[in-house]
Amino acid sequence: MTGRVLRVGAGQLGPIARDEPRHDVVARLIALLEQAGDRGVELLAFPELALTTFFPRWFTDDVSGHDHYFERSMPSEETKPLFDAATTLGIGFSLGFAELTEDGDRYNSTILVDGDGSTVATFRKVHIPGHQDDEPWRPFQHLERRYFLESDDGFGVWRCFGGLVGMATCNDRRWPETYREMGLQGVELILIGYNTPIHYAPDPGQNSLQGFHNHLCMQAGAYQNGTWVVGVAKGGTEEGVESLAQSAIIAPSGQIVAQALTTGDELIVADCDLDSCRRYKETLFDFARYRRPEVYQRIAGQKGVIEP
Ligand code: CDT
After folding, report:
1. Distance of alpha carbon 3 from its chain centroid, rounded?
2. pTM (predicted TM-score)
3. I want to staple 254 with a disulfide (CB 3.0 to 4.6 A). Which of 71, 195, 219, 239 is the partner?
4. Would you say the CB of residue 53 lies under 6 angstroms from ligand 1?
């Protein structure tokens, strides 16, 4: 194979029980990492909030009531074995976790770690979905807006793994701005972890379309920006809530080249030729030649809809 080929894995997780200790989850992550090592993977993506159950599904009066699900440092004593195993194997990885900063701010974050164990970057989720207050009419809560701040850092792109790599988290993948912000920085590979409940309480009519929408937005984001996209789920039925699996590795053509078959812990792998991004970036989506930012003013300047 020619070009800059990076062997990428997605380490899908099945459910994590509410009482499952970090130590056991880290052991599951290391098992996926070892499988990735056997298959020559150089960069392995793990899901959003990959160390614990999806705790925003429960309301606590005091926001700090869920602080035991947050990490105050990365690596921590409990996560260090994962970092050590990755360094020994020479595999880089991305890992979603709940971040509690020294200032007491809470973010839904993802760390990107190089194959030598050094931290490349920490991304904080930008588009926080769900609601802030208890809504007992729902079969389960989606209180991300109670437990996480919206990050103002935006979507960075980093030179690493022989290419240009960016990150996004779950709901971020539904927004075209996410991909285009990174596309304008030349991104070649976007790593996206997600936890997507199949039941959408405000409009259950969307339930049967969850799988379609998941792939639709990531495939469109890949194609329209000429980039690889890795979508990696925590799927299966977790504490009674069924979540979408369907982890996928998507080429710059928008085609899915690898997809998970189960709803449990599963590794998928693809050889991602980063040079193949140029086929799209230098033709149909040659931004410098064809974009018209002068007629896109609303996109950055206006938040909600203003009808004519
Ligand atoms: N974790 C996450 O962002 N999940 C959302 C669910 C939105 S429904 C409240 C998603 O976009 O999949």
Report:
1. 26
2. 0.98
3. 219
4. no
Please tell me if the CB atom of residue 171 comes closer than 6 angstroms to any atom of ligand 1: yes
Residue 143 in any domain: the answer is yes
Q: Is 307 a domain residue?
A: no
Pocket test for ligand 1, best of 148, 172, 196 (most atoms within 8 A of CB): 196
**246: in domain:** yes
Phi, psi of 154 (to 5 degrees): 75, -160
Reading the block at residue 63, the tokens are: 């926001």
- The answer, yes or no, to whether any atom of ligand 1 lies below 6 A from the CB of 125, is no
Q: Domain tally for the chain?
A: 1
Contact 276, 28 (CB under 8 A): no
Q: Which residue has its alpha carbon closest to ligand 1 atom 1?
A: 195
Nearest CA to ligand 1 atom 11: 171
CATH number, domain at 112? 3.60.110.10
Per-residue pLDDT 10s for the chain (308 aa) are: 567 999 999 999 999 999 999 999 999 999 999 999 999 999 999 999 999 999 999 999 999 999 999 999 999 999 999 999 999 999 999 999 999 999 999 999 999 999 999 999 999 999 999 999 999 999 999 999 999 999 999 999 999 999 999 999 999 999 999 999 999 999 999 999 999 999 999 999 999 999 999 999 999 999 999 999 999 999 999 999 999 999 999 999 999 999 999 999 999 999 999 999 999 999 999 999 999 999 999 999 999 999 99
**String of DSSP letters for 10-49:** EEEB----TT--HHHHHHHHHHHHHHHHHTT-SEEE--TT
Q: How far is the CA of 173 from the centre of ligand 1 (A)?
A: 10
The answer as to whether 199 is a domain residue is yes
129 pocket-lining for ligand 1 (C-beta < 6 Å)? yes
Atom nearest to 173 CA in ligand 1: 11
Exposure b/e, 19-28, CB count within 10 A at least 16 = b: eeebeebbeb
